[in-house]
């Protein structure tokens, strides 16, 4: 029983760490705070429309899943596409979380650059 409790506590702690890491990066918004090992957030630059923000968040999830590094999936909360991390894997480390959030932000910056470049070509 103690081992199960330790796994649960580890997952909860990792989700809280995701929250602190997300807040370090520009344009990311927490949608729900870490709760029972689950956290919901999204890239949400103020200069983009909600529809474009939804598209970008969907593509961020696709890219990270295609990469195979982490399972960051989408869901819809309050009529907006959000990214969700469920940090219940007992083998996940704080370094894994830090690198996952960095990867998400790198994909986000690349997608934002592409959107801006495409817009300027119109």
CATH topology: Aspartate Aminotransferase, domain 1
Query: Mean of residue pLDDT?
Result: 92
Number of helical stretches of at least 4 residues: 3
Q: Which CATH architecture is right?
A: Alpha-Beta Complex
Question: What share of the residues lie within helices?
Answer: 40-55%
CATH class: Alpha Beta
Number of domains: 1
Protein name: Glutamate decarboxylase
InterPro entries: PyrdxlP-dep_Trfase
Organism: Oceanobacillus jeddahense
Itemize the secondary structure elements and their pairings.
Elements: H1 2-22, E1 28-35, E2 38-43, H2 50-67, E3 73-77, E4 80-86, H3 94-121
Antiparallel strand pairs: 1-2, 2-4, 3-4
Protein name: Glutamate decarboxylase
InterPro entries: PyrdxlP-dep_Trfase
Note down, in words, how this protein is organized:
The chain is an alpha+beta fold. It is built from 3 helices and 4 strands; from the N terminus they run αββαββα. It has helices at residues 2-22, 50-67, 94-121, and strands at residues 28-35, 38-43, 73-77, 80-86. A 4-stranded antiparallel beta sheet has the order 1-2-4-3.
Summarize it.
The protein is of the alpha+beta class and about 120 residues long.
Which short descriptors sum up this protein?
55% helix, Aspartate Aminotransferase, domain 1, 21% strand, 122 residues, 3 helices, alpha+beta
């Amino acid at each position: 029983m103690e081992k199960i409790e330790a796994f649960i506590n580890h997952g909860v702690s990792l989700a809280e760490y995701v929250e602190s890491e997300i807040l370090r990066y520009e344009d990311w918004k927490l949608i729900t705070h870490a709760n029972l090992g689950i956290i919901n957030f999204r890239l949400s630059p103020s200069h983009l429309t909600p529809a474009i923000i939804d598209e970008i968040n969907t593509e961020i999830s696709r890219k990270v899943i295609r990469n195979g590094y982490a399972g960051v999936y989408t869901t819809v909360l309050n009529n907006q596409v959000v990214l969700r991390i469920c940090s219940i894997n007992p083998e996940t480390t704080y370094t894994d979380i830090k690198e996952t959030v960095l990867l998400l932000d790198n994909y986000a910056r690349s997608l934002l650059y592409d959107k801006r470049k495409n817009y300027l070509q119109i």
